[in-house]
Structures are given as structure tokens and as C-alpha cells.
Amino acid sequence: QDGTTLVSTFHRPSTSTRPTSDVRTVNVTLSKTDFDEIRRKSLCSPGKSDCHLVLPAASVRDLSGNSVPAILDGAARRVAVLTNDTTSPSLFSFAAVDMDAGTLELSFTEPVLASSLTTRDITLQDWHVVSTVPFASTITTTYKLTGG
Question: What is the pLDDT of residue 136?
């Protein structure tokens, strides 16, 4: 940052875990909530050079109790290495069909762009086995959404 430009989008982790031993380099494990929110806000996205860190004074202390100086917005530190997200989302659960409201609930393993969902690609299917002696057969009824 150039000392005058302030960030407009940020996320302050709330439930991530801190290290358990005294070390020089710390690795913070982001909670799923924080990780998803960072992705949702497109912070630290591929192709961006605007992934920076702001740190309030006294947020970290050394072994003698000395506090780290603040790293203020406008002077934030740029990330040195940014590893791109290469993991595709997958459908975690098909949680609900509400026939009163006319809605489907689909849950994914990571945040997805709502605008990328093509409802016309969704097909609902009713599949069941009809058992008759001596043969069993399956009956499948499908409906492909129209997107309207």
C-alpha cells in the first residue's frame, strides 16, 4: 500500500486457532467460517496483488512481553506467497425440497458464486424399485428445471 490508500474490503478472523508453542514463525489455522468469508469477499484471490495484512498494536508479544508495533491500514504488509485455490467445490448435501415455498437447498463444500448456478442444469429424479416376483424393475421419473 502507498500510505494513503485504505482498504475497502477486509475480514477479521474470529474463530481461527492460534499456535500452541512459542516460535518465530507462526501458522494460523483459519476456521471454516473465516476461510469461507475470506473466499466470499474475494480477498487474496488469484491474480490479485492486493492481499495485505493489518495488525493492531499489542496483538502479539515476544517472550519478554514486548508488543509488536501496529501495522496500520495504508501501510499494510503484502503477502509474499499466495497459493491459488485449485480445489473445485462439490455438492456436500441436497438438504431440502420445500414444496410450499418452491425451493431447493443445495450445500457445497466451499462458497460458490450464486450467479454461476445454471438452474437449467438441475434435474430432479424420483427413483424406486418395484419388486414383483420373479423380477425386480426400477421406475425413474425425472424433471429438468427450466430456469424460469
Answer: 57
